[in-house]
UniProtKB/TrEMBL annotation:
EC number in record: 3.2.2.-
Ligase is among the record's keywords: no
HAMAP family: 3MGH
GO biological process terms, semicolon-separated: base-excision repair
InterPro entries for the chain: Formyl_transferase-like_C_sf (IPR011034), MPG (IPR003180), MPG_sf (IPR036995)
Keywords: DNA damage, DNA repair, Glycosidase, Hydrolase
Highest taxon of the lineage: Archaea
Identification of the protein by name: Putative 3-methyladenine DNA glycosylase
Cross-referenced Gene3D superfamilies: Methylpurine-DNA glycosylase (MPG) (3.10.300.10)
A Pfam family hit: Pur_DNA_glyco
Length: 186
DNA sequence: CTGTTGATCTGCT
DNA sequence: GCAGATCAACAGT
């Protein structure tokens, strides 16, 4: 498995969201290797996207989305949940990131079960806040470099054909529902 | 400072 | 289907 290079994230946020489907998200922690195939993503941009955290400018919380591409943007929401994004945008664009919504567990299923305190594999990482809990991703991973063999990175995975990608409106948001920026594998 | 809202999940009805 | 957990950003006072 080869790690995706910085240039992979150096393109339009929506294109990167599509291309991340089928790739492997790898987490190294306490000597454990945990990995899963990315099965669902959402693109979030900037001024043309009222639903994005960055709409309205940079804040202390969202500054990672304005920073170097290929890094992790982790945010806290609803008082108890973390969600993880990969910073991605074309070079002439100010901000953007891809929310990783769902994984198919591959390695480290024992570790994930322990984190989530459940044994139902199909319920382990099928939601944005579930997968961060399963992979033990917190604000410590804010800004982690996904293009290096660090504690969190993304590698090559399955080949996904265009006909296998389903797009639709993003889930759980009320603004900008005309943007079909949710992508998943059939 | 105060009140509202939210890229969520769980558990109960 | 809906309440509850519980916090950061933001708009308003």
């Amino acid at each position: 498995m080869t790690i995706l290079t910085r240039s992979f994230y150096d393109r339009d946020t929506v294109d990167v969201a599509k291309d991340l489907l089928g790739k492997m998200l790898v987490r190294k922690i306490d000597g454990n290797i945990i990995s899963g195939v990315i099965a669902e993503t959402e693109a979030y941009r900037y001024k043309d996207d009222p639903a994005s955290h960055t709409y309205g400018g940079m804040t202390e919380r969202n500054q990672a989305m304005f920073g170097q591409v290929g890094r992790a943007y982790v945010y806290f929401t609803y008082g108890m949940h973390y969600c993880v994004n990969a910073v991605a945008r074309s070079p002439d664009y100010e901000a953007g990131a891809v929310l990783i919504r769902s994984l198919v567990p591959k390695k480290g299923i024992d570790f994930m079960s322990k984190q989530r305190k459940i044994h139902d594999i199909s319920n382990l990482t099928n939601g944005p806040a579930k997968l961060t809990q399963a992979l033990k991703i917190t604000k410590k991973e804010y800004g982690e470099d996904l293009t290096k063999r660090s504690s969190l990175y993304v590698t090559d995975g399955l080949e996904i054909k265009k006909s296998e990608i389903l797009s639709g409106p993003r889930i759980g948001i009320k603004k900008a529902n005309d943007k079909m920026w949710n992508f998943k594998i059939i």
